[in-house]
Amino acid sequence: MSHSVETPTSAPPHSAVATILRVDHVTHAFGGYVAINDCSLDVHTGKITALIGPNGAGKSTLINLIAGFYPIQQGSITFNGQSIGGLPPYRIAQQGLIRTFQISRDYGAMTVLENLMVPPRNQLGENLVNVIFQPRKVAQQEKELVGKALEMLNTFGLYEKREEYARNLSGGQKRLLEMSRALMSDPTLLLLDEPMAGVNPALAQRLAQHILDLRGKGLTVLMVEHNLGIVDQICEEVIVMANGTTLARGTMEEIRAHPEVITAYLGGA
């Protein structure tokens, strides 16, 4: 029986769909353990793409490589046609590639609103010269950023918590805070590392709708996710990893019927 799912050993060929991110023959080892092994994949512009696979498949390691948290030992990564392999995380973020984490990270001693005021790029108030010689411009920009942050908190249902310390939020609220904080950087590609982990079904549905809304606004999303129900619901493309490399690519329906994927999940990676 034939399947239409791609089983690439190298990056998929270019199609009419624009590619925003390309991982090409990337390898990364921790000592003698090869976590990523000659891995290649493309992420298409304007799509919600899921990266799935059994535990230990290398998904989070690959996200860390893309975002610059681990150095590339072999291969290349390009974002918007520019090589980002070897760049530090802040340089990659400045180009519009923003990631979230499996375990939500926040500034616990700062309020929810203050958390959202940290990420925006090119803040005039970060330069003492601007504070001294352009106080009106600094004040105007800060006013605009506060307005944007409050609108973001309202969208994510955190407006009433704006003066609350971030450390006092529930686990689900911290998920919402992390996503809203990431969006304050105006990303063009958002990497979500298990956004549904540890949240209840109702909140998972809310997060799923937020992600769909982001796609509707032109944002590209690559998400690592174990909740295959959510993947089936919102992801147009699914890439499967096993043993540190890409195993298959297609729709969720195609992936479910792929014999190698079934073996990887049921037989262990």
Beta-strand percentage?
Answer: 15-25%
Counting DSSP E segments of at least 2 residues, the number of strands comes to 10
Summarize model confidence as the mean pLDDT: 86
Can you tell me the number of structural domains? 2
- Whole-number radius of gyration? 20 Å
Q: Helicity level, as a percent range?
A: 25-40%
Explained architecture:
The protein has 269 residues and is α/β, with parallel strands linked by helices. The chain is built from 10 helices and 10 strands. It has helices at residues 59-66, 89-94, 112-117, 128-133, 135-155, 171-183, 201-216, 228-234, 252-256, 259-267, and strands spanning 19-30, 33-44, 48-52, 74-79, 82-83, 97-99, 189-193, 220-224, 237-242, 245-250. The chain starts with 18 loop residues before the first strand and ends with a helix. Residues 1-15 have low confidence and may be disordered.
How would you summarize the topology of this molecule?
Layout: E1 19-30, E2 33-44, E3 48-52, H1 59-66, E4 74-79, E5 82-83, H2 89-94, E6 97-99, H3 112-117, H4 128-133, H5 135-155, H6 171-183, E7 189-193, H7 201-216, E8 220-224, H8 228-234, E9 237-242, E10 245-250, H9 252-256, H10 259-267
